Every structure is written in C-alpha cells, then in structure tokens.
Amino acid sequence: MTAFTQRYTQSWMVSLCFTNLLYTVSSSESSQPRAYTGTPCDVDGDDLEPGTLPPPPHDHSDDYYSPFSSQAEFELAELLYVEEEMSAGKINKLLKILSSLYSTHPPFTGHQELYALIDAIKQGDVPWNSFSVAYCGARPNVGTPIPPWMEATHEVWFRDPLQVLENQIANPEFRDMIDFSPKRVYHNHKCQYSDLMSGNWAWDQAVS
Questions:
Q1: CA R_g for the chain
Q2: In Å, how far from its chain's centre is CA 36?
Q3: pLDDT the model gives residue 127
C-alpha cells in the first residue's frame, strides 16, 4: 500500500507520495487528492511487472582501480584532489619530494598526469562542454571608461545536467537517499517549488 501523508496548518497543505503513486492536491483543504499510477517502467517506457528488480550494475572486481595502476595510486589521487584539494604547484612539489626521498619514480609525473587519469575514469563520466558569451547591451557614453567585462568574451564550461542526473539515479550508493516520487506542495493557494521532485517537469514526466 502506498503511503500518502498530508500535513495541515492554517495556510499549508502538503501532500507527499511514497513508492509509486502520484498525488495532486488543490489549494482547498477540503478537496480530496486525485491519484495517478506512477508505474515503474523500463528505458523504453514499457510498464514493469510488480516486484521487478532493476538491472544489475556493471560489477568490477575488488582490485579494479582503472585507470590507476593500484589501490594506493587511487587513494593518493583521492587524497590530493578530493580531500586536500591541493594546488597544482604543491602536487608537483610533493611528487618531487617523494621521488627524491625514495629514489624511485613517483606514482605521477606531475599534476597534469594526475588530472588526466582522473578525467579518464569511465564510471559516471560526463564530458565537459563549453560556449562563449559576450555583453551586447548598452555601453557608457563617449568619453566614459568602458568596463573590461563589457568588451571581453566569457567562456562558460558545463556538464549536461540530464546526464549528471541519470548517473546519480543509476548509482546504487544513492538508492536510499533519493525521493523518486513527484509531489506538489501548496501554500496559500500557490504551488511551492523546493526541489526537482516538486517541480512541473518531474510531475509532467510521470503523468503525461
């Protein structure tokens, strides 16, 4: 049985849907919610049988750390790049010290090789894209200095939000941390938007 809760105050009406039923509520506290069946489906949009398990993730062996050659290399990269957010110059300095201290080749020749290995990780990879923008609006009067940003071309780098979201949903680490059910929340007869699942796009994908 799908759990459905409503919380009331003088001005709030919140309807929350859990598992696979979707509810919409009007702004009147006396109105009854209207139910839609949000049946889980496959990538082709075909309904799944009740209890169907998701496809298994791409499993790897416990010692699989590609493109790094070992677990130690991976953990060092994670320490420098993720945990310490070490600058490129300090990474180079540390690797040089390690090479001199142990009279051997360091795990990475420098920060550029480290960054290249991180970018080569296949799991969850979403490529970077870019576009350029420039100011095309009104400019100061003649004789007035023009701010540099008005004449510059600005490069914007981004990753496809849809691909990022698909990777998050497909990651089993988040399976108990994501609310997959769209919801609608009303306050003083106005729809409130607080996250992806309270927005129109998520609702339309489920009921259209």
A1: 26
A2: 27
A3: 82
Query: Which amino acid is present at 176?
Result: D
16 and 56 share one domain:
yes
In a domain, 175, yes or no: no
Distance CA 73, CA 71 (A): 5
Q: How far apart are the C-alpha atoms of 151 and 93, rounded to whole Å?
A: 38
Instruction: Report the number of distinct structural domains present in the chain.
Output: 3
Give residue-wise pLDDT tens across range 113-152: 999 999 888 776 788 899 999 999 999 999 899 999 999 9
Nearest residue to 162 (alpha-carbon basis) of 126, 208, 206, 204: 126
Residues of the domain holding 142: 125-170
- What's the token pair of residue 199? 């927005």
pLDDT digits (tens, 9 = 90+) for 140-197: 999 899 999 999 999 999 989 888 888 887 777 787 787 778 888 888 888 889 888 8
